[in-house]
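To: structure desk
From: M.T.
Subject: fold request, one chain
Message: Could you run this one when you get a chance? Sequence is below, nothing fancy, just the single chain.
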Amino acid sequence: MPDADTNNNPTIALLGVPIEIGASQAGTLMGPAALRTAGIARVLEQLGLTVEDHGDLATPGKAATQVSPSDPSPANAKYYDEIKAWVRALSERAFQIAGSGAIPIFMGGDHSLSMGSVNGVARYWQQQQRPLFVLWVDAHADYNTPATTITGNMHGMSAAFLCGEPGLDGLLGDQPRASITPDQLDLFGVRSIDPLEKNLVRDRRVAIADMRAIDEFGVGVLIRKVIERVKARNGVLHVSFDVDFLDPAVAPGVGTTVPGGATYREAHLIMELLHDSGLVRSADIVELNPFLDERGRTARVAVELIGSLFGDQITDRPTPSNAILPDEG
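Reply: Done. Structure tokens follow.
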């Protein structure tokens, strides 16, 4: 089995996950097609990477969404049975793709897909005896449970589920639940969080770099802290990128816009530093809603950021170990 650490020209595996029922706004099921149209495969291939497009995950049939008496739908979790089928199918595919040695990019779709993508990838890395850390780049914490949520929308419960919080315990059925611990999760760019959700995140001591911290310290300092923590534990990193992390002026094509998000340049610096770290082994791109976009603008920005995550840059720069600062004066 190939190891991504020793593969100088890794294969990128694209998988579309056209799910929208985890969110309140329809349209994210068109996200994978919009990313393809914006040239995600072409951008990655131009970087010298091998790209395999696995198409879209098939919509689970009715049999997969039937309610089991042993797994009743929890209260206050909308479309639980349908999302359960998606999560189980995606978790298995994510595990298989990670095991092939490829770096999977899961193209959504709303953020509920991460309950499957991250679980499958985490399961693979547990077998390799390396911890998976998750960088949750998002305007929202997504750390609600059925007991704390205001809306019942399951895209707002994905991070909590991944950290083993109760309430959605039957979601994976017989598949292993490869939970991460709260100290393996970093919430980055948060600027909207529900009251009970905030209490839960505080109680679990989840690391948060909110927009105030970004304003005070800058994204470079804060991302380097994440990188150092992952390296210290010989971990690998999954980047779960919600396009609403960006300011709506940069990325209008999302259903949950929150003013005061990251700038175009801040977002690219994050991706460039993550690429330099060599730690990223999988990624999600979620919540892109072409129905709300302006002539494909948000899709193009998302593709450009994925390019930066995998090595695209304006000029060739020396590695950080031998970097030389420009002359002063």
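Reply (cont.): The mean pLDDT is 91. Let me know if you need anything else for the meeting.
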